Amino acid sequence: MLTEDDPLLLRHDDPRGVVTVTLNRPQAFNALSDGMLAALQAELDALMNDGSARVLVLAASGKAFCAGHDLREMRAQPSLDYYRGLFARCAKVMLAIQRLPIPVIAKVQGVATAAGCQLVATCDLAVAVRSARFAVSGVNLGLFCSTPAVALSRNVGRKEAFEMLVTGEFISAEEAQRRGLVNRLVDDAAALDAEVEKLAASIVSKPRIAVALGKELFYRQLEAGVEAAYIDAGQTMACNMMDEAALEGVQAFNEKRPPAWGTRR
């Protein structure tokens, strides 16, 4: 049984640069306490400058992926300044995930509610077991999930997002995939490990610079008008094309051979 001395996060790095960070408050359904948010921010800050990292897998211990904010902690400090600071710290974590130069995969093995659903929506990719469920359920407590709405509405259709926000109802993993919140579904925990590994392996087989440039551009152009997006995308592709990895990849294609990227990616 976990105690207060157990780490809030567990981290594992494999030799390929796949980093797995596991939320480790199963007794509290991995709620995003102040301590958990601080620990996540520290890991994300470290990864921002880690040139050896290629993929981040965000996993969780226990039956829930994440139940959102820690409601006991929130109720114990009922002040406007505290709540403003809390949601600002949460937003900083979400933005750090998006700004990482490596893809982030949510590995969802249980329920993801409120800010936990926000966390899934914020990750670049998500793989879930079919028994997982998703909700932005704050409205059931009289608290509209305004900050989760930012990420959710950028993943699923407006009417579908708003329905989730105003009803607080759970949706199944199958429905989450249909709506675009989840990429891939699997039947059980063993299959979840295998599918996340398959996705991570596909990513690390590509040049890191191309993925980093592409992720940054992907989110940047979404917030721009279409003409500005094309200008930005064209400039990004031109810069990407001048990188050694892209030049080698195109040359290899022309010569009908595998690219000789080796370890320089």
What do you see in this structure?
There is one protein chain. This protein has about 260 residues and is α/β, with parallel strands linked by helices. It has two domains: about 10-205, 2-enoyl-CoA Hydratase, Chain A, domain 1 (Alpha-Beta Complex), CATH 3.90.226; about 210-255, Lyase 2-enoyl-coa Hydratase, Chain  A, domain 2. The chain is about 50% helix and about 15% strand. It contains eleven helices and ten strands. The strands form two sheets. A six-stranded mixed sheet has the order 1-2-3-5-7-10, with helices on both faces. A four-stranded mixed sheet has the order 4-6-8-9. Helix 1 (about 35-50) runs parallel beside helix 3 (about 80-100), helix 4 (about 115-120) runs parallel beside helix 5 (about 145-150) and helix 9 (about 210-220) runs antiparallel to helix 10 (about 225-240). The longest helix has 20 residues, at about 80-100. The radius of gyration is 19 Å and the shape is globular. The mean pLDDT is about 95.
